[in-house]
Design a protein that fits this description.
This protein is α+β, with helices and mostly antiparallel strands. The chain has helices at 10-24, 30-42, 60-63, 70-78, 84-91, 104-117, 135-141, 148-156, 159-173, 184-188, 224-230, 241-249, and strands at 45-51, 54-59, 128-132, 197-200, 219-222, 233-234, 237-238. The protein is built from twelve helices and seven strands.
């Protein structure tokens, strides 16, 4: 495995923040969400950034490496290839964010963010913060054809309520895929307990603005395979839940 490369500019940082937001999104896998939240829970030096009217936080040891992902980071940690000292020094360069500092206001926002994620942060040990306020501006000014980032940000303004909507959908409709009928605990035992993904019947990408999710009418539990097929298109058309059921039944 190649040695990790430190970020070198603001765009590298923005790329990592967008990746992190995708892990925290409602339509991410439960495993990715939980793993990302664990890093946020255990960190001590954080980059703070705005998402709508919220403050989000990510540990420097994750965001400081170029094009980082959960799978890469896991390998870096396992092989002892990364250190928070390197990322702290890189982020503290004047051309990036400058010096991190202890900040009571940021500390309150960090605790609030952890509470919204459903976790209690590790015992405080001189938590320090950098504040990066160019994140949203860079997305708004971006005129490139990849529009997904902008839509995710508008959607994330409602992230706390949507996470609860996901849980409510599962509470009402159960853990069985509504298309193929698979229940992961029945097949895989304890390791499959509680696992299922949730699908938006009307894709978020088709919404022109943020909206309040109805866990009964907007969401359905699906397995990863069926979920992937629902998001694949043929000649610009996506399969409906009923159409995918018919294919499986054949």
């Amino acid at each position: 495995m190649k040695n990790p490369i430190l970020i070198s500019d603001e765009q590298d940082l923005i790329n990592n923040l967008e990746k992190i937001e995708s892990y925290l999104a409602l339509d991410s896998s439960e495993e990715d969400f939980v793993e990302m939240v664990e890093y946020i829970k255990k960190g001590h030096h954080f980059v703070c950034y705005n998402v709508g009217n919220e403050y989000h936080f990510v540990p420097s040891r994750f965001v400081g490496y170029k094009d980082n992902t959960l799978s890469k980071h896991r390998k870096y940690c396992t092989n002892g290839m990364i250190t928070g000292t390197d990322t702290d020094n890189q982020l503290s360069r004047k051309s990036l964010l400058g010096d991190a500092e202890e900040n009571d206001n940021m500390e309150r926002h960090y605790l609030k963010f952890c509470d919204s994620l459903g976790v209690t942060p590790s015992k405080k040990r001189q938590r320090k913060y950098w504040f990066f306020n160019n994140y949203i501006n860079s997305l708004v000014e971006n005129t490139e054809p990849y529009e997904e980032g902008k839509l995710k940000i508008r959607y994330h303004i409602q992230r706390e309520r949507n996470r609860k909507a996901r849980e409510k959908c599962i509470e009402i409709k159960g853990l069985k895929c509504c298309i193929c009928g698979i229940n992961f605990e029945n097949i895989y035992g304890k390791v499959g307990k509680g696992f299922i993904q949730v699908h938006h019947i009307t894709p978020i990408s088709e919404k022109s603005k943020s909206y309040v999710v109805d866990p009964i009418n907007d969401l359905v539990p699906v397995c990863p395979n069926c979920h992937a097929m629902l998001h694949r298109s043929e000649n610009g058309k996506y399969l409906s839940i009923e159409e995918l059921k018919q294919i499986i039944n054949k």
